[in-house]
Amino acid sequence: xxxxxxxxxxxxxxxxxxxxxxxxxxxxxxxxxxxxxxxxxxxxxxxxxxxxxxxxxxxxxxxxxxxxxxxxxxxxxxxxxxxxxxxxxxxxxxxxxxxxxxxxxxxxxxxxxxxxxxxxxxxxxxxxxxxxxxxxxxxxxxxxxxxxxxxxxxxxxxxxxxxxxxxxxxxxxxxxxxxxxxxxxxxxxxxxxxxxxxxxxxxxxxxxxxxxxxxxxxxxxxxxxxxxxxxxxxxxxxxxxxxxxxxxxxxxxxxxxxxxxxxxxxxxxxxxxxxxxxxxxxxxxxxxxxxxxxxxxxxxxxxxxxxxxxxxxxxxxxxxxxxxxxxxxxxxxxxxxxxxxxxxxxxxxxxxxxxxxxxxxxxxxxxxxxxxxxxxxxxxxxxxxxxxxxxxxxxxxxxxxxxxxxxxxxxxxxxxxxxxxxxxxxxxxxxxxxxxxxxxxxxxxxxxxxxxxxxxxxxxxxxxxxxxxxxxxxxxxxxxxxxxxxxxxxxxxxxxxxxxxxxxxxxxxxxxxxxxxxxxxxxxxxxxxxxxxxxxxxxxxxxxxxxxxxxxxxxxxxxxxxxxxxxxxxxxxxxxxxxxxxxxxxxxxxxxxxxxxxxxxxxxxxxxxxxxxxxxxxxxxxxxxxxxxxxxxxxxxxxxxxxxxxxxxxxxxxxxxxxxxxxxxxxxxxxxxxxxxxxxxxxxxxxxxxxxxxxxxxxxxxxxxxxxxxxxxxxxxxxxxxxxxxxxxxxxxxxxxxxxxxxxxxxxxxxxxxxxxxxxxxxxxxxxxxxxxxxxxxxxxxxxxxxxxxxxxxxxxxxxxxxxxxxxxxxxxxxxxxxxxxxxxxxxxxxxxxxxxxxxxxxxxxxxxxxxxxxxxxxxxxxxxxxxxxxxxxxxxxxxxxxxxxxxxxxxxxxxxxxxxxxxxxxxxxxxxxxxxxxxxxxxxxxxxxxxxxxxxxxxxxxxxxxxxxxxxxxxxxxxxxxxxxxxxxxxxxxxxxxxxxxxxxxx
Length: 988
Fold this sequence. Notes:
The protein is of the alpha/beta class and 988 residues long. Strand 11, helix 32 (759-767) and strand 12 (771-774) form a beta-alpha-beta unit. The radius of gyration is 34 Å and the shape is globular.
């Protein structure tokens, strides 16, 4: 049988952990009347207590209490209190070993407990094998088995047996997965897969390594090269539907493992495993390349539009003096004509009095050349970049397998026309080509007096294809990011079943009438209240006039006494190197144990090497430079450890460990209770090789960059981060951090700035159980929506934008619930759905219905904002914490001029995750030592008001040395379970 370890020491301990809260103890160990009547049949208080305690242990965690093992004190007290006996009675119990054995036999007989047998083992392996087809995480399988045995009243065996059964199930599941992927392959398939491990004609790389490369720049050359990669993947011609033979989680895991292997390693695999791994790599590689090709097209189109817009502006600026001269000249001519009419003189002579007629005629010609289109649009300049698009467009359209919803059928019809023209080498667009997709902006350019302009028709079609791909109206076979919208959602049958059983995982009433009645009643009440307060000028620090809304800014000053405390604590915090800080925090939390080996699940053998790799990400130094800055370390060692131990999921688990530790810190409660949070995007420029991977957002200047979008709790713990394109609105990613973090935080209220909100986000936030509170810039221009058009809210008229379309919400209610359920269950990410909904054409039913729902919630929020200064203060304080955290992150991420220079998106994600993990470690370390600093100040005779502690912040870094050589030496000043000495207070 397999003997490999699949559980860490901490996981083994957690499996049989006893309840540690009063509520859990009561839930697990409260006896029924039947229980008590059976227990009371024992003679004497000691026997009754011992019998009852054994019953408790058999029920949960499901084990026999060892002879020399004392019971958990809180459990013992709870049992003793129920039996009305003293806790000390336990000392008299079980002095005869036979008594314990007899009680154990009785408990098994009376309560139906069974010993674990070989039959149970075989059933366990069979049960877990089915689950192991979905996940190979040992802790998940072991937890499932233990819960199953508890439900069957089977006494748990030793954890070695549980681990052995789980490991055997993983081994069996692996064999089944390998067979499922390898058996459908023909000999021809296998030969083609084997060829992937051979070197290309240039001899520098293997075909597999070349196929897995990401595009370098968004231009025609790299687009064509990437299309060649997709063709090579497609040429494998794998059996249809092979990707559906295996659960997506396992397929991704196999592909990820294979991606870390050298061709020589893959060649050594047992045959079935080798072909299964290559199939998984091919499936994932094909989807990745498809998505990257679509993204390249999106970015190239974006570049063409930006280039056209810039040229338009430059031409206008360059022509400014000439235009001004013409305006002044025609002003003089106009004045001469007016005077000529008034005097009845010859108008032509009047013109010639200003300038010779030939010069006038020439100036008209010049003016016509200077003139821009009537609508001052730059779109006509797009045609100048047609050659760029034309270099790759035929191959691009030929290689993608496109499908369309009815809303985009005309776009797909146009694409088919272009495909036909490409295959026939035709130059002229057929007269009957579809033109319904052409928007008014394009029509003058595309539909000319001589027929359809080929250049602008193709440019328009490819631009509209980009938009339809974004929204999901057009989808691509084999893609992950551009599938049919319906494929992302919970299957209709499953949704109907959940709804019928009232098991939808949503935080609101799922009956449409009840939901709308509750929310609209509240909305009408709030509108009436705020209208009355506005009329009476009773809104706190706010006034609504005919010209709009004015709100008095908040006073953000920190009290002088708080500033003095901030300064005092800063002066006595210990100086510490970042390496020492990370080692100390790991001693407290053991966060490094989560960086397990991708294949074996083992923890890293060299913890210092692991911390070095994490720090290289966090300070943006990179592995090569870090190897030079860390004596005794080599690039090869760091690279190997990163390949096998650093992953998105290991970073997430380690971050959750630190966030949970911060959540449990009593001192952190001065800043909040962990139920509120904020999120904000922080822009980092992309430089060197990564420059072409960045996007441009005018908000951050003209340089390309990436955004690290981070969520931070009210206790300053950064509990989620994500690398996103700077061109995408922040609101797209707000829900991801709230739904997909792995910490114990239970966020109830969330804050963002203006970029973090849309009506779609307001709607989904409410449906999923979060109170959304953005700080909206220019709030007076953000309109309120009312249930009925004839309602009279005179004082609010300047802010009312229209009437809610409740009929539309009712018509699409089930679609809204299905979308929210899919997001909550993790069938699809919130950001992907919000991105598609935001790209939908305005007439899309679901997008419009969700917007109307969001308008209800946004209006309710604004009405609360107008009434509550406290709400404004909460939001302001929450956002300030996020902005302060960004300053710390900027200080830590100081190498390479603070620029992202990694070309691959995976490495960029690791940079963001490493940075977030180290900032979380700094926050935790500072919190612990701030508490010690305040205790020391109080011990030194300083009176400190607890109300001032909220003004302290664990985001300082002046006392932390982030630079120099990175040595991992345990400080002699810090023993096990001890802390660094604080610096002495300077004399007053």
